User: What shape does this take?
Amino acid sequence: MKTHTAETGYVYQYYFVGSRPALDSAPEAPATEYVFDVTSDRKTTFAVSVFVRRSALSQWSQTHSRSLNDAEQYAAAKLALLRAFDHTENILAGNRRVSVEAADLQELLAPLLE
Assistant: This one.
């Protein structure tokens, strides 16, 4: 269990549950879905899904002349989750689906790959 104090003032605890290919019916597909269990009150736990779109990974590969490895893809998903915590007033009440587009991928990973 990890803790993140969001810019909104909420303190979230979360852990990684697993990843899987997004369902074909998901609006974010084709993508890899990273699932995190989250709580902000230690009573209610809910799932947040982070979708790293395949098109974002393809664009990254073209721009950087290499593919992201599994650890880097997970890092992007986790950083997108933390950014959602920081920018969503109450993630439980809001949309618990986060999509990582090409521009997001570049922005999220830039500090890690410099």
Q: What stands out?
A: Strands lie at 2-5, 11-21, 31-39, 45-53, 97-100. Residues 2-109 form one domain.
